[in-house]
Amino acid sequence: MIFNFGSINIDHTYRVAYFVRPGETLESNEYSVGLGGKGVNQSLAIARAKGAVSHWGRVSSVDAWVMPELESAGVGVQDIELAVEPSGHAIIQIDERGENAILLFSGANHGFTQDRMAALIAQTAPGDTILIQNECNGLDQLIPLAVSHGCKVIFNPAPMTAKVASLPLEQCELLFFNRTEAAALLEMPVESNAADLLSRCKEVLGDVEVVLTLGSEGAWYQRNSETLFQPALKVKAIDTTAAGDTFVGYFLAARQAGLKPSQCLQRATAAAALAVQKRGAASSIPMAEEVDGLMCQTAEEQF
């Protein structure tokens, strides 16, 4: 079982010609409200990939509608706490190229207490997987607590902040980074190439597994002396909002099913390629059958 200690956000999405500039009032072409947050997106991706996942989160009682929506998708919701404070939410701008700019309010996602985290970890068994992102509080306490209980911690440090460097990253089993996140953590130029970033990861993180996602440039996997590369599929991106979360969820579901790292990369890359061709966050995450179809199509085109 994967237990996802993750954010639950309400997304307010605006489609614009370009990102609004300081002092400017910009008219939006479209507006929508939906379920989001990196935590929720990754839980949905795992579930849609036919993985087993239970979500640990907090949401305002006025937004309790998110629970049946998650449950209907196959996500365990028994440990989602209804809170009195506002839910986390995001203001998302999406421009004509499909790129996004996001303003985030943490809300209930930052209301975890030490007692609550201890109670959640107490439910797990040695060998269980704890997935975390950087949109909930208490990670400095949760990581060592989970490891001491025999759990495997998988961390996607997004959004990247200065505090991430002070976390016990060496205790994690696997880290997911994009180029910007890796460069920030490793204090390297953002234009650094993949080989340099991976080499520095090995120096700083030791034996921790690393997945480095580079968008249209593909994705890399590294563990000890093993390095794997998966090219990206060539598609026209409409909205990249949940592409990274889709990749993480599909990779972990494939890993849970016993697939090799190279196969996990392939499925995750195909899933992300489908996600960027749809609008929205949670709504863009594909079903396993769609990913199967794209992988079969891609394999046929290579012959």
Which keywords apply here?
33% helix, nine-stranded mixed beta sheet
Q: Based on DSSP secondary structure assignment, what is the total number of beta strands?
A: 13
Kindly state the mean pLDDT as a whole number? 95
The sequence of SSEs as H and E is EEEHEHEEEHEHEEHHEEEHHH
Distance between the termini: 37 Å
- Residues in helices, as a percent range: 25-40%
What's the main sheet like?
9 strands, mixed
Q: Could you say which structural class the secondary elements and strand pairing correspond to?
A: alpha/beta
Secondary structure tally, helices: 9
Written overview of the protein:
Helices cover 33% and strands 24% of the residues. The chain is an alpha/beta fold and 303 residues long. Helix 3 packs parallel to helix 4 and helix 7 (243-256) packs antiparallel against helix 8. It is globular and about 50 Å long. The model has no long low-confidence stretch (mean pLDDT 95).
